[in-house]
Design goal:
about 290 residues; Rossmann fold; 6-phosphogluconate dehydrogenase C-terminal fold; six-stranded parallel sheet; 12 helices; elongated; binds nicotinamide-adenine-dinucleotide
Amino acid sequence: MPLFEQVTIIGLGLIGGSLAAAVRSGGLAKKIVAGSRSSRTLERGLSLGLVDEGYQDLAQAVQGADLVFVSVPVSAMAATFSAIVPGLERHAIVTDGGSVKGSVIAAARAQLGAHFSRFVPGHPIAGKEKSGVDAADAALYQRHRVILTPVAETDPAATQAVRRLWTAVGADVLSMGPDEHDRVLAETSHLPHLLAFSLVDTLARQGDSTDIFRYAAGGFRDFTRIASSDPVMWHDIFTENQDAVLAAADLFAAGLARFRDAVARGDSDALLGIMTRANTARARFL
Ligand code: NAD
């Protein structure tokens, strides 16, 4: 049963392409349209059957859409909002999948004008190390969380429509404030990526990086898997969520210093205390 006449996806990569695939497989829109700078991406989206139409002109892509999902890199959100405004229908709901919410909301507030009240900021907590339209996966959002961060101006009916969409593709939707989102994600997602990139880079600088993997066991592989993520996307996240990332990095640096100190002092009680607390906390997430 379609929820929308037309859904338009701007930025048909992993996140946008996967939503298009999920909307398609659930029959949630009568028409799915893509907007992308790249004609190759549009051709792939059409040939994979993800979308019915594709336009390089983003204003043209959003014409007729009840719901517009913007899934371009966070640093490209402002220019993208500005490009779609001339084509937006009066009733259109705009939502996004950006990994940072404060800067995306500021961009939407500055660019969307009267449409800002129907902008519902969102972030699907789902992903892979792969990017691009060829990585699109209709099942990506099933049993994954999606966080919506509506602000005071956001029309509750628009939030409800976006919530229905994500629920229909199998996601578990929750709401929080944008500041809380950016802090929590800095600690649980941005910091681990920073650590993985930093650990692999630090060791790779010591010599031939292939050597690391020759001697490394499963723990190193598991811990560093996310260092294969897209550097450009993560560059954007670290710069756009700078304050919260710095706070999380400082929190971690203090914890690392405590751990290092316990090792230096040979303090078994302190070492076992840290690791036992970590075991107990980790067990709650299994
Ligand atoms: P992707 O690289 O797979 O897709 C990005 C899309 O945006 C592509 O279609 C690309 O052509 C287009 N694009 C790139 N630069 C652009 C620009 N300057 N202007 C306009 N379009 C541009 O990336 P993705 O993983 O789908 O990420 C899209 C959004 O989703 C990002 O905001 C990211 O923060 C967020 N996100 C990603 C993940 C993840 O794990 N990959 C998870 C949750 C949210």
